[in-house]
Amino acid sequence: LSTCRTAADELERLYAQQKSWEKLTTLLRNLVDLTPDMKLKGAKLRKVAAILTQHLGLETEAVEVYESALKLNPQDTVAKNFLIDYYRAHDKWDELIRILQNDSNREGSLGAKWLSHFWIGRIELYHQNAPENALASFKKAFLSSPDDLILLHTWLSLSLCNASPEDTLKTLQEARCETGNPQTRAEIDLAVADLTLRISHDPKSIE
Fold first, then answer.
1. Cα–Cα distance measured from residue 36 to residue 75, given in angstroms and rounded to the nearest whole number
2. What is the C-alpha to C-alpha distance for residues 66 and 22, in angstroms, rounded to an integer?
3. Which are the contacts of 106, defined by CB distance < 8 A and separation ≥ 6?
4. How far apart are CA 206 and CA 202, in angstroms?
5. Residue 42: CB partners within 8 Å, gap ≥ 6?
6. Where are the alpha helices (DSSP H) in 55-112?
7. 101: exposed, middle or buried (Cβ count in 10 Å: 0-12, 13-18, 19+)
8. What's the pTM?
9. 71-127 tens-digit pLDDT
10. How far, in Å, CA of 135 to CA of 160, rounded?
């Protein structure tokens, strides 16, 4: 096995030196199929994708390769970042949401779990004209990071326009129990007082 790997490595170096990019991508794809090593599979797939974009100008094919790499390893940040940039640049919002949603389900490997939810909400609000979906995403972002004032303001402004006062109040009370930020807690208390007053003066709440 080590002899075969050495021969494959030598052939890989030879094709790279000769700039025989088609032969090199074929070799690398074959190695992906042959090796049981998942890390090695991912490394070879990333090489294939890099050659496709940098030397062959085949960006669409590179997307497919990076998608395969991400299926092998959902934490592959190289593949993930390429796909995020590509789908964003080409206005492929459903595909971008899929990548971000998968990331949020895996504890937010982009850096923080709230970040995936936040970007999904922005896409839904500004590119898909889906405020109700955006509200749900911003709510997840806020409850994932209840100390963050910006997330509070983003979610609250949308919730006041698209959700019932009762639902908004319930989320605020939930967040208040989780936040450790005195300023956030104070703003939540103000919003709770305002909503409680609004509900008590709503004729529908008396029925």
1. 18
2. 17
3. 74, 75
4. 7
5. 69, 72, 73, 76, 79
6. 59-72, 77-89, 93-105
7. middle
8. 0.87
9. 999 999 999 999 999 999 999 999 999 999 998 877 655 557 899 999 999 999 999
10. 10
